[in-house]
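Table S5 (text form). Sequence records supplied for joint modeling of the two-component complex.
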Amino acid sequence: MPYKIKEIELTKPLPDISLSPDETGMALIVRRNDKPVGFVIQQFPVKSLIYSEEIAQLIAKEIGSKLIQEYLQEEIKPIINLALFPSLTIAICTKDRPDNLARCLHSLKELLQQALELDVLVIDNAPSDDRTQKLVGSLPWVRYVREPKPGLDFARNKALQSAKGEFLAFLDDDVVVDRRWLTGLITAWQENPDAAAFTGLVLPYELETEAQILFEQRGGFRRGFQKIRYGQILPGNPLHPCGAGIFGAGCNMAFRREVLLKIGGFDEALDTGAPLPGGGDLDIFYRVIRAGYTLVYEPEYLVFHQHRREYEKLQRQYWSWGLGFMAFVIKAYQTDPPQRSKLRALIWWWVKYQLKQLRDSWRGNHVLPINMILAEMWGGIVGFFGEYPRSMKRIETIRRQFS
Amino acid sequence: MSNFAPWKILHIDLSEDIPELNLEPHYQGIYAVFWWRGIPLGDRQIFASQLPLPASALRNLAIEAITPAIGDRLLENGFKAPLPVVYPDPAWDKPPDLQALLALQQPLQQLQQTYAQPVNNSISIVICTRNRPEQLARCLRSLLNLSQPPQQIIVVDNAPQDETTRGIVAQIPQVQYILEPTPGLSRARNTGIRHATGEIIAFTDDDVEVHPDWCVRLQQAFINPQVLAVTGLMLPAELETEAQYIFHQGSGGSAWDYRAINYDRQFFANMQHRGVPVWRIGAGANMAFRRQAFELVGYFDERLGAGASGCSEDSEMWYRILAEGGICRYEPTSVVFHYHRRDITAFKSQAYQYMRGHVAALLIQFANYQHWGNLRRLCLTLPKYYVASILRSLKHGFAPRYSSVFTEILGCVSGIQFYLNNRKKPAWSIPVNNSQSPTQSNLQNSQLITSSIKPGN
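The corresponding structure-token record, covering 860 residues in total, follows.
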């Protein structure tokens, strides 16, 4: 079942790769001079021996353009930017997952030695015990803050209040950061000093179960290895900036703190845990752009995400994607009248897209089985019919409870 | 009243400091063309709402825009421009070889070296003009700036109303003046060919300015002996009016890409049954021919072109070259800057002339070779296209960019009429002072035959 994940360094000779008796495929993280430049995922029979020539072909197809761009980056006079990166707070919102959190913090610790004074903040969100607090207590370089109101966006807003840095980066507790993560963020900022938000690449941490492999085969959280600058328009995309989901993922994002404050922080009615577990990232990216700012996607700003291991949880994740997406669309429709025609077009696009997926899956041309697609569709339908107002009421209750 | 706002054209040499782009009042955006020391590599339209753009972000945008051209020039596979219609699917190109990719160190240096090779053929430049002395003067000034002087520059003054053009040319000793009293662009071009002495004969129009390396790049493109014709990149010199912008958009597409294309026998064979899209190969304002090409397939058809059918004398020539097994190469490093017509009425009359010439050329191509694809295009493809266009126009309430449909249809009808009236006329006049004996061709291509095309009938 599992896929082997292997790092390839292009400046060294390519290896032959042999799969063990239980491995049914492999994923390659391709780097050049340590910098991530490509990702390949492919199924293979068990016990395959994949020769370096075949690996070369697999890689060449994926990274041709990216590699040329790397050479050009080196050859075309860089813009010299002597300014130092502003102060940075890294916030990790967590709830009852100390093991995941410890792994995430461990990956950050390695970066700490690289330079910069980092302000690392853990937001313990409505914890059911003190394990997280104890863990953080044992790490002198991490600050501990508690947010009793349950809901990810309550926790994110708490981080916004408690942060000291000019920049604020968010990580989920189920990621580990790549060793180039900080370099990636600094690069993106130097290249786009005017940008207010940054998102990065998310690759799989492990591909051990069927659910994890399915999720990654369908594209996962990947947004490719091209730098993208999302401004007020996106040439070739008439639905921009409504085309949610293209900007990146909430498990790896960073903002200018003052911009977040100015636009009012995260919407606490989204990302509310079990009832509505999504949409908060879509909403904040959309609002950053609608407020006139630029958002930048940088592939070197990379984290590895541990996907849901269980099949049922993956199905639930697709459901929550549909739900969160539609909740966001309906909210934007209500709060941003000038964009309504685009949002209507987006809803139509979504319906057509889902029906097409359903047809492809029916015919066996889709990586996802029908039940996963139905889950996403059903989530969307529930989201369309009043999920956002329902969530508003729920969080009002929570607010009263904790005031 | 149209609410069109002009585009500012900005040429950015990536070997120099890259600027920060700022909002320019009354422009709707910046049309940025990226170069590396005289080699054009890509472009991007940057809308006003994307500005200001920091220099480093512009650098990233440029790198992305020029990647296909770099890959195409330096690698065998993976970055080929799709041939029009034949391979609309970019997947026809095989993926690149990883070892070749990894060996690409300093691609821009490598690229520059490949274009630094000296040329070993001579070139004559022919400019045909008619009563446009100011534009001609601008064009000639740019020709005097060429990085390597050509063997010869000829101005063919076509049925002029006065002596102004002669006077302008007389001021420039490097330029030779020839009078062609009979009107017609093809006729003027043929007169130019007869006076040309270079191994390569390049043509441009009076409404362009040429890039200093225009000629050298054309000459380099003829290194392969099977290449009989070369076309180049035509960039807009200005995009100040809506007509210019529509023209620019309409002439866009793969033909104006920054990757080279070889149109060869296989391209011709694949498309013959449905009408070979020879008009996609290039434009008369930026083209060149090996002298032997004219000996092999004949001169420009004088029934076609401005002053006669309207246009398509260039593409009909490429048709014959391809039909006889030669290669037409699109070489985008050879650049001219074209001043598109500024007003929309002139644009419409151009659309009329364009279709008139196109239809006449289809009929002439059929008459020359009995390739039924030409008739299929005339009788099936074009009617289908215009029915669809009219339906679309009805839907969009005849917006400016769809308004030329009826003009074009009239042009088509007139093209048929023109052909019927002129089918008996000779394709080109027999030269007076040219022996016309087939010179010993150094082309190894034995399939090239001269017999199937005869001047006139």
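Note: The first strand of chain A starts at residue 3 and ends at 9.
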